[in-house]
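Case 151 in the screening queue. Each case pairs one protein sequence with one candidate compound; here the compound is zinc ion. For every case the pipeline is the same: read the inputs, emit a complex structure as tokens, and attach any notable structural observations.

Predict complex for case 151.
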Amino acid sequence: MRSASRSVLNTTFHSDASRLPSGPGAYILLIEIQTNVTVRLPRRPDAVLVPGRYLYCGSAGGPGGIKARVARHMRAAKTVRWHVDQVTTTGKVFGAWVFPGGLECELVAALSALPVPIPGFGSSDCRRCTSHLLAWPDGQRMSFESLLSTK
Ligand SMILES: [Zn+2]
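Case 151 output:
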């Protein structure tokens, strides 16, 4: 892959998972919820996500890589396996920005200006991040330049 197309891939929002690369890497999922969503995390009190937009940073390395994982996130019908499934089965998943070869925790670090709605969300096996889910309040700008420099 040419370096020019790689940087385009890094900054383009993909609403169609079928066009995503099938290799390993990280992604930022854009989710919107219209109603309160009660989230259950092990060994923590239930938490409520209020309506709004959220960004979930994840990574995929198994068969089908980023493409298979984002496609799964975008499917409403699925068995709830990960914390984020509690949100994607209720809200709308618009798509994702993808970072082939990237790491989810570096994406979280690059988005550290965004508020953490629920500590521990998606990060129970992560010692670095407070949460892999971030709130994206209206009007708050995200800098993709900072994401590009994380690689
Ligand atoms: Zn992390």
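Case 151 observations:
- The chain has a mean pLDDT of 87.
- The radius of gyration is 15 Å.
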